[in-house]
Amino acid sequence: MLDLLLRAANLPDGLGPIDIAVKDGCIVDMSPKIVAGAARVIDATDRLVAPPFADSHFHMDATLSLGQPRFNLSGTLLEGIALWGELKPLLTEEAVMERALRYCDLAVAQGLLAIRTHVDVSTAPLVGVAALLEVKKRVSPYIDLQLVAFPQDGLYRAPGAEDNLIRALDMGVDIVGGIPHFERTTEDGARSVKRLCQIAAERDLPMDLHCDESDDPMSRHVETLAAETRRLGLGGRVVGSHLTAMHSYDNYYASKLIPLIAESGMQAIANPLINITLQGRSDTYPKRRGLTRVPEMVAAGVNVALGQDCTMDPWYSLGSADMLEVAHMGIHAVPMTSRDAMSWAFDSVTLGAAAAMGLPDPTLRKGSPANMVVLQARDPIEAIRLRATRLAVIREGRVLAETPPRKAVLSLDGRPDTLDPADYGPKKSSIYPVN
Ligand code: FE2
Fold first, then answer.
1. What are the CA-CA distances from residue 154 to residues 180, 189, 195, 275 (Å)?
2. Of 183, 213, 223, 228, which residue is the catalytic one?
3. Residues 276-292: pLDDT tens digits?
């Protein structure tokens, strides 16, 4: 007797329809027609069943704080940092936990079951660290939550930040963070990269730096990060997040830099929702998009994940823990619209994000944990196009969340009809029936 059986699922790589059998939290069989009883059967006919979404770049200490203590009027990164600085002294552990746990509920409902969050460690007391360590513990049955010790105000720019970062790591924060482009000088930025790489190497920890999140073509700390990664042999443990200045580098420099990044083995994360709005604010026209060079890095063999970064906080007023929205914006902002590129965008918020986080490959296969999302779409591109409803979110065989399918009931000329959003398109029309 199986615990769960999904019937006739489509898989992200185009395979299917296929049945997925689950027992004791694991996928025990994946075959075209499984004959077995099950405690629960989900009909996944014409539905995409994919690994859960993973968000490799987020700020959970700030999430859902929109409007506290005021709104970001300029919409810039710098006003966002200043505004966060106004909110920080007002934070309590309870308030941070309450917002974070509320966000985690939303994340689970959206099929987002792995999150890497940066947590500000630049000022003592480490309220956010204490709160998110507790949140990590509480949500562990549902979400793989990783914490990055992030000196938001600069490792050297903020007095005491380096000591606070070390203290946060001692408290159990998993990953070394940084923000070299926000240090006072280019030299300090490079020095911070080298120091943080040293800390990661000594403690055998991953690292994930906010790096060159700027429109300044001379913000080139990723070069130091890649060189240090290569020198210390840190490889895929190192992630460069944002890297938006790469958009503004001249092509010759980029053609020298990208092979160095690839050779180092480091990984990259682009955050299209936030950077399409934060960057280019000092431009007149044309305005730069402010996304890093995604296709060029992918072509060079670098793993690039797409992250969300923010949801309703000092930097970004929107967001809904929806990684399909992130992929959708990435496709537009990069831009990358070929079928292959759009399929890549789906992978970048599932497989690619898991790889950037150092998690096991979440591809659905026999023997792997039964972690998956049933989507109201037939394939990955349709899932992105429709920002498909998460019909069922499953972790280790347990259905954690369900959302009814989206359907429109049309009453046109007395001809009632019900449409699944996946049916909208050239094949079906109630207004202009074929016959
Ligand atoms: Fe960030």
1. 7, 9, 13, 20
2. 213
3. 999 999 999 999 998 99
